[in-house]
Design brief:
Blueprint: E1 5-7, E2 13-15, H1 23-84, H2 88-107, E3 110-113, E4 125-131, E5 141-146, E6 148-151, E7 154-157, E8 159-164
Parallel strand pairs: 4-8
Antiparallel strand pairs: 1-2, 3-6, 5-8, 6-7
Length: 171
């Protein structure tokens, strides 16, 4: 081992850097330092840009979710009004408006949660009542009391349902 070599904690030899000998070596070293700084700054800026894009997208998603959650009761009332109409021409026009509204919501990623006849899933359904129907299998949804909705795979409102249970379980 020479004077210029240094031992690392693992016992490996590392040569010491020799000081720059002339102005060309100084300029070369300065160029290398500046290039390394530029590379680090470019990477930091790219990370910053990606992080701000993600944060902006999260804010927009939360705002969309809040707006849609406020519109769901209005949509429920629209469905109730649609069911109570007796005039066929008005019913047809209102159905067209409802379909247009649902198309707009679906374009934004809103999906209706399937419930009637499905097996009860506590992740997407809210059991608010139970029934004892021998013609339906156990743990099957026999009535949908309020529609549930998902936004981009996330439940924004679970479907309120009536679930069939065995007679012994009802006690």
């Amino acid at each position: 081992m020479t004077e210029k070599d240094v031992l690392t904690p693992e016992g490996q030899e590392l040569p010491q850097e020799t000081p720059p000998e002339g102005p060309e070596q100084k300029l070369q070293q300065e160029l290398e330092n500046l290039q390394a700084n530029y590379t680090r700054l470019a990477a930091d800026f790219d990370n910053y840009r990606k992080r701000t894009q993600r944060q902006t997208q999260e804010v927009v998603s939360r705002a969309n979710e809040n707006l849609l959650c406020q519109l769901l009761p209005v949509l429920d009332n629209f469905c109730i009004a649609l069911e109570s109409l007796s005039n066929q021409s008005v019913h047809k026009g209102m159905t067209m408006i409802y379909d247009q509204l649902m198309g707009a919501l679906e374009a934004e990623g809103v999906k209706v949660i399937e419930a009637l006849g499905c097996s009860f899933d506590p992740m997407v359904h809210e059991a608010v009542a139970h029934a004892q129907c021998p013609e339906h299998p156990d743990n099957t949804i026999v009535e949908e009391l309020r529609k549930g909705y998902m936004l981009g795979g996330k439940v924004i409102r679970p479907a309120a349902v009536k679930v069939n249970i065995k007679k012994e379980d009802a006690k």
